[in-house]
Structure formats: structure tokens, C-alpha cells
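At your convenience, could you comment on the folded chain following this short note?
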Amino acid sequence: MAVFSEQEIQHNLRAIAHAVAQQELEGLKVPESTMDDLHRAARGEIGTDKVLRNILDRFNHVPIFQP
């Protein structure tokens, strides 16, 4: 997939940490499977489109995600 420098990977991981912290402040918990996908995307192993597809697949039973 994408090739990121170590600096870009660290930047991406910090962005994830900040986003997750914000969710926790709101009283929400990011599932471990989503965290795994986010970390893979931060390293360039998968794209954000794959992260979103995985989330939609995992939560397709949630009414907000249904068309």
C-alpha cells in the first residue's frame, strides 16, 4: 500500500491517539478491531477506505449505518 516515513507513521499514530482520547472523553470506547485497523492504516498497510469498509462490515447491524 502506501510507504510512509517513520516520521509520518509517528505523526499518524499520534493523530489516532488524540482521536481515541477525544472519544474516551465523550464516554465512548473504540473497539480493539478498529484500533488494529487504524494502526495498520497509520503504517500504510491498508488504506482508510479499507478501515471504513471494515467498520461498516462490523457494525452493519447498527441502524445508523443502514441505507
